[in-house]
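Reading group handout, session on sequence-to-structure problems. Before we discuss, look at one worked example. The prompt was deliberately terse, the way you'd type it at a terminal:

> structure Peptide-methionine (R)-S-oxide reductase

The input record follows.
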Amino acid sequence: MKRFFLKSIPTLQYRCFQTFFFQKNPSTNMKYPLDKSDQEWRKELDPEQYRVLRNKGTELPGSGKYTNYFPEKGVFVCAACKELLYKADTKFESHCGWPAFYDNLPGKVKRIEDDSYGMRRTEVVCSNCGGHLGHVFKGEGYAVPTNERHCINSVSLDFHKEETNNK
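And the output record:
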């Protein structure tokens, strides 16, 4: 039955099906300085944070608490491990439905090529714990110094008014 089902799907649909159900995201198997078990993450994160940060989910557009929040000073940190990620002055209005930043703090975000769901994108994860933050898009024409948009899930972030320590 399984063979008949797979052969009956046209090639393009099958490739999308295969990508969606069988492709592993490379960041899942990487090691990070902060290494916790799945059980530990489940205890520390609320269900939505766990879904996004650990299972590479995406929050609904426009639903995040930081989407329309534009502080002049401070720093956005990883909601899982509190690693400093983005300065407040790099956040900009992109009208995409998620918080957008044009640059991260040096060495705080790891970029990983992401071919999931039949698309070619660049995933960004916290370089300390590997938590999924979102994706980076280049060349969209925003008037920002880097010509990049880091499209980040609010649930992956916390905000601190003052940059108290720079790990």
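Points for discussion. First: The helical segments are 2-8, 11-22, 38-44, 47-54. Second: Residues 1-27 have pLDDT under 50 and may be disordered.
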